[in-house]
Amino acid sequence: MTAELRSQLPIRRWSSLSAQERYTALRRPAQRNTQALHEQVREIIQEVRSRGDHALVDYARRFDGVELTTLEVTPAEFAAAQTSLDAVQRQALERAIANVRRFHEAQRAEPIRLEISPGVTCEREFRPIDAVGLYVPAGVAPLPSTAIMLAVPALIAGCPTRIICTPPRKDGSADPAVLTVARLCGIERVFKLGGAQAIAAMAYGTASVPKVDKVYGPGNAWVTAAKLLVANDPDGAALDLPAGPSEVLVIADEQAHPEFVAADLLAQTEHSADAQSVLVTTSMALAQATLEQLAAQMPRLERERTLREAIQNTRLFLVDSLQDAFDLSNTYAPEHLIIQIAAARAWVPQVRNAGSVFLGAWTPETMGDYCSGTNHVLPTYGFARAYSGLGLGDFLKRITIQELTADGLRDLGPTALTIAHMEGLGAHANAVQVRLAYLATVLPDGVRAAARPDTPLRGSEGA
Amino acid sequence: MTAELRSQLPIRRWSSLSAQERYTALRRPAQRNTQALHEQVREIIQEVRSRGDHALVDYARRFDGVELTTLEVTPAEFAAAQTSLDAVQRQALERAIANVRRFHEAQRAEPIRLEISPGVTCEREFRPIDAVGLYVPAGVAPLPSTAIMLAVPALIAGCPTRIICTPPRKDGSADPAVLTVARLCGIERVFKLGGAQAIAAMAYGTASVPKVDKVYGPGNAWVTAAKLLVANDPDGAALDLPAGPSEVLVIADEQAHPEFVAADLLAQTEHSADAQSVLVTTSMALAQATLEQLAAQMPRLERERTLREAIQNTRLFLVDSLQDAFDLSNTYAPEHLIIQIAAARAWVPQVRNAGSVFLGAWTPETMGDYCSGTNHVLPTYGFARAYSGLGLGDFLKRITIQELTADGLRDLGPTALTIAHMEGLGAHANAVQVRLAYLATVLPDGVRAAARPDTPLRGSEGA
């Protein structure tokens, strides 16, 4: 077993790889994102737009193998869900919600109000996005934890319309844990819809499903393609983050526990056949011990089959220094970065590109996935170079506001005039000019010098 | 003239329109976003990726009509630019930069550090995006104001690599005002590149142009299509905002100055043939007087030809109440919202969807476009329902960090175990379980009960 793994997973010395070899070694597993897939998804979206709920019922039959009589979860189903969880399960969800809530409430930002110069005020205020659609996938099993990560910030943001779509189970019901989370997070409307058709329903609305302004949540290749397509359409809906297969990078030194490192790599690996786990270590002994632990732990895990498939994406790198390790990590830009080195905390400033960071021996990624308080919807597939994980701000819009007094315009107006003329935009200049000309005809106390009783001088300051 | 405009621009009573008529009346001008355009842009991107700088020189010849010997602006060009602006122009740019800088510096957010429960710490820190590419268009004339809006937040964020692409002028030089802004904002590298080819060069890099992680800035249909395409490619670059033609909505009551309202509508209208201006007023007299002002002001404006074309997109609505006006505005979700009513300030909380808001008689949109301090890169084409205007945060990533102590894991670990099992993710549970099992073998003071000298107990807290 170890021998087999050892041949599958060579420990590569980073310093001996050429630039091209490094590039290749850090390539993510190929993503299913073909033109053909996009065409299929485009057709699904078109069907949902033209046939609405009828198309949704048809797709549920075809893709989920269920005959849905209602798309929306009924009060009876909600009630049944409440009783189907045991006390330990319910308490675990409640504690996770409480922690995620605390961390996301801490992300509230104050409005800004700044007098830029006398009579020129600029402000920034927040508004919740009116309608948000939360997609809770159910690949292996339904994911109540994803419902938590989406529903909690939407609740804190105060988005007036918050709905969940989640694929129906084989018996046509929705997962009771997801329904329990929905209720605990104040979400009244849950639809038993999965895949691209769920995204289309939320982006455009149907008789049953309200149209939303933005869709959130991870999903498979169909869901991802649908999110991109509806986001590119002004009549569709925005998306939270581009998504790809999930990944972890573990930086470990000779003091790390190989048992823990291997367990963390495997936790990521079990997600799907295209998930990727990367170990970067300064210690050959740790790398070898981790390989042994991988071999030892894999057979006792329930998703062994997925593990055996996805382990082929695992990469093991030996680096000369921790600086090399962090450089490699920043190049790879992992969704999850686990740092199991003696001085983990001291190296945090070196992390430039990563979704979420897990420090030390006692912080497995699992904790962030479920209940530490951070969000588990994170930029995958290298998107951490430019994107951030989901947070409260993703459920809000920032609106800027400016207000000038007559004196403020007198003072700053000429600056705008100059730049407008530099840009050849005469009507932009004119909008300032007509006001300055008007102000030139009035005395400073607001009394007009030239009589023009039909247009009294009046600013929003009530002059 | 007024008669002609009056027939072109009917004043429509909102309350008398059916739902379908309202929907049609608020439709934006059609966007050039065809499959054919996408195919052209896809080809340009492919050419730039495969032929690099050679393709860029070819496209400059073909699209810009210039023969470029160097793509990058030289120190001599920078020096010449400094001297070609007069003192008034330079001071105007400096003042605009100072104002934009102040408002964007006020957007800095503090890191978060929160002890969620004993031994469980969650944090959020900010990191600048490593490399940003700023696109400064030059449709009518080059836009130094756009250079300000992009370069200032990139500077404050501290993005290590900041480059500008801007289309070359007919003589092959770059606009001196844009170069002056670049220098004032600490940008060393400017490339004379426009259109889709500029976006491709920044997203993938060429021998001359460094690859960036995210591209910013408005542009024409080719630029917009290129940004979407590279953003959908994990090897490409993220984009700031989806873009469409620019627009303004003015809410005015009977006390507004028709002269100012008309000037504001025209300032927006001059942008391009597909720009749109919307007036929503509670006063028929104001609507009619605005029409007269439109007719009076148009002939004296330099971009009259564009105005005559784009004025066809202008919409005039008469509403029964200010509440109706704000409802209409929130449905339209304007990029710019100008509020010229007696109690403008009091109505701000009613604004749910808008990019930037201008309050009162003395705050023409022009001021925000150039120098009030707010950013003028804003969500257009209805995207204000889900997106915000550009700000400091768009140049930063938010990274979350968590750290558990051994006791923290002992306490919270079982919660994660429960949820992992609910989701059928055994390897996730295992990563917690191996640690809890390990901790069960050690005494509370960190001394191991069971001898296993090869793996000392060690968390990042240095236990």
TrEMBL record, chains A, B:
Alphabetical GO biological process terms: L-histidine biosynthetic process
Signal peptide: none
InterPro entries: Ald_DH/histidinol_DH, Histidinol_DH_monofunct, Hstdl_DH
Binding locations of NAD(+): Y135, Q197, N220
Cofactor(s) the protein needs: Zn(2+)
MF term (GO), any: zinc ion binding
Superkingdom of the source species: Bacteria
Catalytic activity: L-histidinol + 2 NAD(+) + H2O = L-histidine + 2 NADH + 3 H(+)
Enzyme class: oxidoreductase
Record Gene3D superfamilies: 1.20.5.1300, Nitrogenase molybdenum iron protein domain
Pfam families: Histidinol_dh
Cofactor note: Binds 1 zinc ion per subunit.
Residues given in the record as substrate binding sites: S246, Q268, H271, H336, D369, E423, H428
Key words of the record: Amino-acid biosynthesis, Histidine biosynthesis, Metal-binding, NAD, Oxidoreductase, Zinc
Record-listed E.C. numbers: 1.1.1.23
GO CC, any one term: cytosol
Pathway this chain belongs to: Amino-acid biosynthesis; L-histidine biosynthesis; L-histidine from 5-phospho-alpha-D-ribose 1-diphosphate: step 9/9
Active-site positions on this chain: E335, H336
Chain sites annotated for binding Zn(2+): Q268, H271, D369, H428
Stated role: Catalyzes the sequential NAD-dependent oxidations of L-histidinol to L-histidinaldehyde and then to L-histidine.
Annotated family: Belongs to the histidinol dehydrogenase family.
Entry-linked NCBIfam families: hisD
The protein, known as: Histidinol dehydrogenase
